[in-house]
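Researcher: I'd like a candidate sequence for this fold, 135 residues long. If you have to choose between options at a position, lean toward the conservative one.
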């Protein structure tokens, strides 16, 4: 099963532009990026979130951020979400609070630039969030 999603990207100079991502929702999970900065390129992962992380790492190297929920600093999928949705759904998390089912987003929904971070920032926030639940 395949789906095309149109998203915005943001260059380091603040300029925004549209791109398309073909989402292939089956093991092997894949994304095919069609847009600025790269020629058509395929990214695969253990699930869609992993494939999205690989795409974001490549875009970051050329100064581009993908403006989607899966790129928000405070969004990360749970293990169960990864198993049940192939990583397509992820939680908005808040330090010191467990993730709520009502805070589940599609990682390909659009997101404001102010909420989006690098892959490293997202991973760091996730680690802080996990640690904050242990206190």
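Model: Candidate sequence:
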């Amino acid at each position: 099963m395949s789906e095309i999603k149109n998203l915005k990207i943001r260059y380091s100079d603040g300029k925004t532009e549209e791109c398309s991502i073909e989402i292939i929702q089956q093991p092997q999970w894949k994304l095919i990026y069609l847009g600025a900065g790269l020629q058509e390129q395929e990214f695969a992962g253990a699930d869609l979130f992993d494939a999205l992380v690989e795409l974001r790492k490549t875009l970051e190297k050329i100064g581009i951020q993908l403006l989607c929920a899966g790129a928000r600093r405070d969004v990360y999928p749970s293990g169960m979400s990864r198993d049940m949705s192939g990583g397509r759904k992820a939680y908005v998390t808040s330090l010191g609070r467990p993730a709520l089912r009502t805070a589940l987003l599609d990682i390909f929904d659009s997101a404001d630039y102010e909420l989006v971070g690098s892959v490293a920032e997202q991973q760091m926030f996730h680690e802080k969030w996990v640690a904050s639940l242990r206190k």
